[in-house]
Amino acid sequence: MTFRATVLTLYPDMFPGPLGASLAGRALSERTWTLDTWNIRDFATDKHRSVDDTPAGGGAGMVLRPDVLASAVDSVADNRPILALTPRGAPLTQARVRELAAGEGVILLCGRFEGFDERIFEARDIEPVSIGDYILSGGELGAMLILDACVRLLPGVMGAASSGEEESFEQGLLEYPHYTRPVTWEGRTIPEVLRSGDHAKIAAWRHEQAVNDTRLRRPDLIERHGGASQAPPSGARRRDTKADLK
After folding, report:
1. Dist CA 7 CA 144 (whole Å)
2. What is residue 172's predicted lDDT score, i.e. its pLDDT?
3. Which domains does the chain possess?
4. Within a 13 Å sphere around the CA of 135, how many CA atoms are in the beta-carbon half?
5. 122 with 98: CB under 8 angstroms?
6. So what's the pLDDT on residue 221?
7. SS3 letters for 95-114?
8. What is the pLDDT of residues 83-125, one digit of tens each?
9. Within the chain, what is the greatest distance between any pair of CA atoms?
10. Do 55 and 61 meet the contact criterion of CB atoms below 8 Å apart?
């Protein structure tokens, strides 16, 4: 099944952007996923192709009109979830990304100006999503981030199916620190346990490091997932011994 992505935006020329390179770009060329962009302005009804108007009640900026947005959404709506990029949305999580990647695809509605007329969320089944506690000029970069997060999870995109299993957020923890050659660099040496060849000890060390880093940098994850009490992954699973560092 091909993962289908549709983006509703005022700036379709921004796509595919970075999604046309690296893993996502190769997967796009191989049609592991497809990308369609629609210009919201094409759904305006006046000669000026207006998509926004002044805020009711006064205030700075402009607000995207619900009638124009609804026409754009209705033109592409199907069984796929519709996500609207807005700082008022629920934070995107890796669990939600996995749900999206396991489905038929996603429709992404990119905000601009002061945001969306709230009635669009009352009238249509649209999920407001935020990619972080900061403000961007529009939702396009957020849409790219969501698509990149989804595409890399599609079968065959990352190569080995286990590539993403121990990454940050997958187990409710930040990922453990990584090292590679040279063994010694500027007087700093790769931890001995990683060169021991004892995969059970390596798994335990990595889990301990992940818990410690998460407790220090993201204590909210510890509280949310109980990460400190999680057992190490069954990571005594042996990897290619040629990768062991001596």
Report:
1. 9
2. 81
3. 3-151 (3.40.1280.10), 184-243 (no CATH)
4. 6
5. no
6. 86
7. HHHHHHHCCCEEEEEECCCC
8. 999 999 999 999 999 999 999 999 999 999 999 999 999 999 9
9. 71
10. yes
Is residue 178 packed enough to be buried (19+ CB in 10 Å), middle (13-18) or exposed (0-12)? exposed
Report strand pairing: 52-53 vs 105-110: unpaired
pLDDT at 193: 96
For 152-194, what is each residue's pLDDT tens digit? Answer: 999 999 975 545 555 555 668 899 999 999 999 999 999 999 9
Helix (H) or strand (E) holding 25: helix 22-29
Q: What is the pLDDT averaged over residues 61-86? A: 98
* Pairing verdict, β 52-53 and 63-64: antiparallel
Distance CA 171, CA 194 (A): 21
C-beta separation of 183 from 195 below 8 A: yes
In this prediction, residue 166 carries a pLDDT of 54
Q: How far is CA 1 from CA 6, 99, 155, in A?
A: 16, 15, 10
- pTM for this entry: 0.85
Structural tokens at position 219: 């204590």
As a residue count, the chain comes to 246
